[in-house]
Amino acid sequence: MENGAAQPVIVAIDGPSGTGKSSTSKAVAAQLGLSYLDTGAQYRAITWWMVNNGIDTDDPSAIAAVAGKPEIVSGTDPASPTITVDGVDVAGPIREQDVTSKVSAVSAVPEVRARITELQRSIAASAVTGIVVEGRDIGTTVLPDADLKIFLTASPEARAARRSGELKGADVNATREALAKRDAADSSRKTSPLAKAGDAVEVDTTDLTLPQVIECVVTLVEEKRAGK
């Protein structure tokens, strides 16, 4: 396929944890010659900064007061996405439990969402060939005019099993409980909750292999590009 001749396309992929968002989004972007943005990493990055600077993550006003301070830069190459905060590579630290346990609270603060949403829109607008943007509120809030919106789902059991595998030996039941807690927090927050856009295509990944999910999404993107 001649990617250079294709029209730029903005693809929004939303869904809860454990549905295959990141793996699918990176692979689709790489296969189609598009940029890739992991928006969750940006929220983790600003959470890492809050923790690292001693900000009380249980105090929304304290978080709001400094939401504009950290400089967050996301590399959009799907083969090697990067993320830095004030010039520091935080790709590893943002995945640690201390950040994971606090990211929902930090992400729920309106000033944080406004700051990160502005950053995400800027990155998407500057993607020359197009971009795959994955997150929880991309199709509904960040990029409501995206060319294609996809919402990935999976059963609680499948999601817990996948996430436990990623966490290398974590207890599946504990992981399932943690995912349910995160879902509740993300779906109930007042600002940009996790939700499926009305015009999104829902893909249930429960019984699909990763290659099958990737193939499905690539087909949807190619059909959109072809004007079908």
From TrEMBL:
Keywords: ATP-binding, Cytoplasm, Kinase, Nucleotide-binding, Transferase. GO terms for cellular component: cytosol. InterPro entries: Cytidylate_kin, Cytidylate_kinase_dom, P-loop_NTPase. It is found in: Cytoplasm. It holds the Pfam family Cytidylate_kin. It comes from the Bacteria. Residues 11-222 form the Cytidylate kinase domain. Residues 178-189 have a biased composition (Basic and acidic residues). Residues 178-198 are annotated as: Disordered. It catalyses: dCMP + ATP = dCDP + ADP; CMP + ATP = CDP + ADP. Its EC number is 2.7.4.25. ATP binds at residues 15-23. It is an enzyme of class 2 (transferase). One of its GO terms (biological process) is nucleobase-containing small molecule interconversion. Its main location: cytoplasm. One of its GO terms (molecular function) is dCMP kinase activity. Belongs to the cytidylate kinase family. Type 1 subfamily. NCBIfam families: cmk. This is Cytidylate kinase. The lineage of its organism: Bacteria, Bacillati, Actinomycetota, Actinomycetes, Kitasatosporales.
